[in-house]
Amino acid sequence: MTSADTSPASPVTAPDAATRLSDILWRRPRLLIALLIGPPLAWLGIVYLGALFALLAQSFFSIDEFSGQIRYELTLSTYAELFRAYNLDIILRTVAMAASVTVAAAIVAFPIAYYAARYATGRWKAIFYLGIMLPLWSSYLVKVYAWKLILAKEGILGWLFETLHLTWLLEAYLAIPGIGGNSLSVSWTGTFLVFLYVWLPFMILPVQAALERVPPSMLEASGDLGARPGQTLRHVLIPLALPGIIAGSIFTFSLTLGDYIVPQIVGTSARMIGQAVYQYQGTAGNIPLAAAFAVVPILIMAVYLWIAKRKGAFDAL
Amino acid sequence: MKKMLRGATAMTLALSVAQAALAQEMMTEIGEGEGELRIVAWPGYIERGETDENFDWVTGFEEATGCMVRVQTANTSDEMVALMNEGGFDLVTASGDASLRMVAGDRVQPINIGLIPSWNMIDDRLKQAPWHYVDGTHYGVPYMWGPNVLMYSTEVFPEAPTSWSVVFEPQDLPDGQPNEGRVQAYDGPIHIADAALYLMTHQPDLGIESPYELNQEQYDAALDLLRQQRTLVSRYWHDAFIQIDDFQNEGMAASGSWPFQVNLLQGGGAPVASTIPEEGATGWADTTMMHSEADHPNCAYMWMEHTLTSNLMSDLSVWFGANPAVPDACTDGRGMQTAEGCTTNGFDDFERIRFWQTPVTQCDSQEQCVPYYRWVSDYIGVIGGR
User: Fold this and answer.
1) Beta-carbon separation of A283 and B81 below 8 A
2) Measured between CB atoms, which of A154, A265, A270 is closest to B385?
3) Domain positions in chain A
4) In whole angstroms, what is the distance from residue A55 CA to residue A289 CA?
5) Are residues B217 and B242 in the same domain?
6) pLDDT tens track for A251-273
């Protein structure tokens, strides 16, 4: 633009290459757009989607049971393997974890977001933002290791329960089959708590944004019409904030679905989908099964996003 | 036309085979260093004095050759194979359960031992070990070897446990508490071999000859033992440092482990010790192998020579609690290791150790064995409670 503006002002001699290029782009705006948008589009198309499809295509091959070599013939047998009991366990376990983390994150995040959106002003608002964002500034691994120490048998939580003479309570809880274990850090509860902690900011921020958009007059009108606070919450506030909750749940759900580091450090060592992908592809070269596993979260998220879209989670975009 | 096509195809095939053969040809001379060397190694294997300033076998090499060493650590053999498959590395310290897979997959190239002047210093027991010497060709330089020891808490065990049963069978430990939830096991499918080794002593009628060569019946028995172990184990160990943390903070009583963790824990004052129980132990024997498409082959050869002659083997043997592939490293004072130290690390127990190797279908001791591919998925099932 600027060079096109200045070129008439320069003495009328043979224009240099840059000026000519600038003239061409000025005359053909579409070319300019193509040049600008081409590289990112190529990145998205070739590098990102291309790599994804190359991976997914692998899932239609199979592995020879005896030699462990990949057979390059199209087959659905690898997908059938997903339905073997121990693989199905992995999928169900992961989805259950992702769902419970999402629900818990929504419950914990809502009051925090509500306070931040409605009551916090000035300096408090800044502190709230900082408090929510601060955990995102430190390394994810550091946080997970810190939680391992907090939850360990001889860790901070154990010490706290002991000081309060409540060790019996913790032990009674840990004796519950399924969610309990030898200590919090080797139980599913531990994995759940760590997931809840690391993904919570991703839930709070969209919910807060949604709540800030709810006009206070609506809540006042609801009160004026005789609704009790509980009714206002149920019939006015939550429906209006729902798109924000769903947007947040997309983050927490999909992040839990694909994570392979948290369950490796905190938990019972039973695999989740991310770990299964990691282990199958790194082992005996069973890339087909790893690829088939990678398709599972994609499918689940596709369904999830479709439902979210129908609920209007993207209307605010 | 068809004939010509067929001829052309045959030509192309022949050419590509010839090319593959060319690519596999080993080097005949060492040139100038390329200024860089990238190594995939077990944690703790390549130290440059950053963890502890007394343990450094890299900076001297870098100063002498100008090859700057970059290390990528891997926690299991499977990760090593995966990293080597991705490429971009020159060397790998591969255990026997990874080395043959990489030889079979053409991930590593033959080594010209004529280019390694100190080759003859290597332990005679390792020079032609089957995990790197295939069909008369050397695929690597022996690095370190050692047992997978049984680590135990000295507060729980006043005397060393004599059997692996403390991690396999439900029982009360000497402190009167049950072992449930207080033992760990290795989070790699190769751990099935530890179960098989245990069965060799305790169920001799199964007729297991090698823990890495199991027929269906023997394999099922091993898996049953591991399912029983699952009820005792609260977390499988994957990362050496997480296991160290678990022994410090989770009240662990016993686990299969590496001398590396034992040394670090003892160095930190933790009440642990290790032993090789009566059943013997599995072990690892690692080999420095060279990637078939190594970008820095000259530096790689210089490093392989460096491993044999420098303080590396001796100091690493102290650091990792392992045994050097060069016996002189125990005695000639090139580093910190002494003859007594090597004895402690199990230098004389070579015969009692069953070294890791990849289970394959075509095995020596019987008609057909369960291949590693199945070990992987079944072990995932066992850990998942199946």
Assistant:
1) yes
2) A270
3) 2-58, 84-310
4) 11
5) yes
6) 999 999 989 999 989 988 889 99
